[in-house]
Amino acid sequence: MPAPADARRSQFTWCPKEERFIPLLRCLTCRPPCPASAVAVAEPHVAVWVAAGKIKEAFTMKSKVRSQETQEESPARFFLVEDGTVRDLNPEEYSAATVYEALGSYGVERRFVKPDEKADLVFEGKKPPKDTVPVLVLKNGTAAVLSSWDELASEPARLAEAKEVRVARAVKQVFVLKPL
To answer: Is this model's pTM higher than 0.90 or not?
Structure first.
């Protein structure tokens, strides 16, 4: 008994560039992806295709550039990661956690490539300085501090759940005692 027409049609999506139905697999690896990309439609199939080696995940980190006016008005931003969450540092409070200075941030874009293409981590814009560390802010609101950018480059799959990657430098806390 042949498969229903809907089941066969679900493996295809409409391509506005080619103006016809194309396989979901080909739509996912299209460059540059169009706004009508079938990622949401193909999500149930993606894990199977990655496991079978038909496609690979690749991640692009796009630099989020703040406007010059915003940078001049706001001082350097300090934050800390406590219990897996990112909190802004309040100058009046004490914390034993490491304090980080935010130097910038990257948005994470997931794309799919053919198995024979490179799936290395790609930075769009300026690369982060070597003396900084990546702080992954995940979609579920938690955060993870990695030891170096090399660790992130060796395990780019960690970016699958990341919403944002902050470029941070650990700073030392200084306490000033004031006379009463």
So the answer is: no
